[in-house]
UniProtKB/TrEMBL annotation:
Catalytic activity: guanosine(37) in tRNA + S-adenosyl-L-methionine = N(1)-methylguanosine(37) in tRNA + S-adenosyl-L-homocysteine + H(+)
High-level lineage: Bacteria, Pseudomonadati, Bacteroidota, Flavobacteriia, Flavobacteriales
Function: Specifically methylates guanosine-37 in various tRNAs.
Name this protein carries in UniProt: tRNA (guanine-N(1)-)-methyltransferase
Cellular compartments annotated: Cytoplasm
Keyword DNA repair on entry: no
Subunit structure: Homodimer.
Main localization, broad class: cytoplasm
Any GO MF annotation of the entry: tRNA (guanine(37)-N1)-methyltransferase activity
Domain tRNA methyltransferase TRMD/TRM10-type: 1-224
Keywords: Cytoplasm, Methyltransferase, S-adenosyl-L-methionine, Transferase, tRNA processing
Domain of life the protein comes from: Bacteria
Gene coding for it: trmD
Chain positions recorded as S-adenosyl-L-methionine binding sites: G112, I132, G133, D134, Y135, V136, L137
Entry EC no(s): 2.1.1.228
Organism listed in the record: Kordia algicida OT-1
Length: 225
């Protein structure tokens, strides 16, 4: 998979890809991530990418011109499956969207800033608008990092143990069951006996029941879906 991220502060996006699973996925050649500075597509001496909004009002709007030039440049080199815009008024990211995007080949992620982008960008270039939650960030960069992490870890070969992404919370609309590791007894806190039993059908049944009970208690809304 190739991910091109367009931003006015691309440096914000460097560190998430320089450690742990995301770095490994890049080192293994499973994912390519390319950061693009939108200011490189400005045409004036000030490298302007935003301007005042028509009709008045506080806050600058990202102009269509630099975004058009950047997208046209990228699209002239390869086909893209999606051009995603990170924005608080997009569809809230969930595991289903992450699963879907993990199957794509090439995607572009455009990070919004200020008051957002000129509506014509959304109307003519964007295929999908994604929010990472009902709160407003300073820009789309941290949202883009969250999206990339959620998507990349699902690509086959990224996680050492292929099944571990399948048993994540949300994959079946249930939260994950509790997990334990050694020691089996710490102070007087004991690990549930069934997990030490070696009886795998019984362990599986226990995990399913725990996942259901935990979801009912913490996120009953997931059971409604
Ligand atoms: N940009 C600003 N706020 C955002 C959010 N909640 N999700 C995605 N992009 C954003």
């Amino acid at each position: 998979m190739r991910i091109d991220i367009i931003s006015v502060v691309p440096d914000l996006l460097k560190s998430p890809f320089e450690a742990s699973i995301l770095k490994r996925s890049i080192d293994k050649g499973i994912v390519e991530v390319h950061l693009h500075n939108l200011r490189d597509y400005a045409t004036d001496n000030y490298k302007s990418i935003d301007d005042y909004q028509f009709g008045g009002g506080a806050g600058m709007v990202m102009m269509v011109g630099p975004i058009d030039r950047c997208l046209t440049d990228l699209k002239s080199q390869r086909n893209y499956d999606e051009v995603i815009y990170m924005t608080p008024d997009g569809k809230t990211l969930n595991q289903g969207i992450a699963n879907e995007l993990s199957l794509k080949g090439n995607i572009i992620i455009l990070c919004g800033h200020y008051k957002g982008v000129d509506q014509r960008v959304r109307d003519h270039f964007i295929t999908r608008e994604i929010s990472i939650g009902d709160y407003v960030l300073s820009g789309g960069e941290l949202g883009a990092a969250v999206l990339c992490d959620a998507v990349i870890r699902l690509i086959p070969g990224v996680l050492g143990n292929e099944t571990s992404a399948l048993t994540d919370s949300f994959q079946d609309n249930l939260l994950a069951p509790p997990v334990y590791t050694r020691p089996a007894k710490y102070n007087d806190w004991e690990v549930p006996e069934v997990l030490l039993s070696g009886n795998f059908p019984k362990i599986e049944a226990w995990r399913e029941e725990q996942a259901y009970e935990r979801t009912k208690k913490l996120r009953p809304d997931l059971l409604d879906d």
